[in-house]
Amino acid sequence: MKRLLLYIVPLMVLASCSSYRYHTTKMEGTDFSQYRTYSWLPPVDSLSKSYFDNDIAEANILETANRELEARGLTYSKENPDLLFRYVAIVNNKKRPVYGGGGPWGMWGYNPWMWGPGWGWGFGYGWGWNRPVGEERYRAGHIIIEARDRRSNKVVWQARGSGEVRTPEQAINKLSEVVTGVMEQFPVEARRSR
C-alpha cells in the first residue's frame, strides 16, 4: 500500500498544478520601489488567431493587471508615469510528442532512465514508453506583460504565462487567472487587504 501511495500522491500533485507556466526576467540592479505611477502603451499586435482580439479579452487583461498593480502600491496616471506597461497576447500552433504505453515494464511509475516525458517502470523496456509514437498538435496561449521605464525608455521587467488553450472562450475566461499569475512575477510584492 505504501508503494502505491508513492506513485499516486505525485500524480495527484501534478494534476493539481496550474496548466500555465510562468517565466520572468528583469533588469538587474533596478530598484522597483522607486516606481509610484504607471500607464499603458497600446498593446502589440497579438498574432492571436482572433482569440484575444476583442473588447472582452482586453478588458479582462487590463482590469486584472490594474488591480494587481494597485495592490503593489502603483497608481495609474496619464501624466508622466514612472512605468509604461504593455501586453501582447499570442495563440500559436505547437507540436508535442505522443508516447505509447504498455509492455511488461510499462504501467505507471516514473522511469528514471528516460530523458523525455513518459512514465514506466524498469529500464525503459516495453512497447513504446521511451519513444514517441507520433505527434499531437495543440494550441498554446501566451500572455506577455512588460514594464518600460519612461525616463530611460528601457524595458526593466517582463513576464510571460504560457499554457494550452482548447477554445477561444476557455482562453478568454482564463485570462484573469493567467494575468494574475504573470503579475505575481513582478518584483514588488502585493499588499492584500485582509
TrEMBL record:
<feature type="signal peptide">
    <location>
        <begin position="1"/>
        <end position="21"/>
    </location>
</feature>
<protein>
    <submittedName>
        <fullName>DUF4136 domain-containing protein</fullName>
    </submittedName>
</protein>
<dbReference type="InterPro" id="IPR025411">
    <property type="entry name" value="DUF4136"/>
</dbReference>
<dbReference type="Pfam" id="PF13590">
    <property type="entry name" value="DUF4136"/>
</dbReference>
<keyword id="KW-0732">Signal</keyword>
<feature type="domain" description="DUF4136">
    <location>
        <begin position="28"/>
        <end position="187"/>
    </location>
</feature>
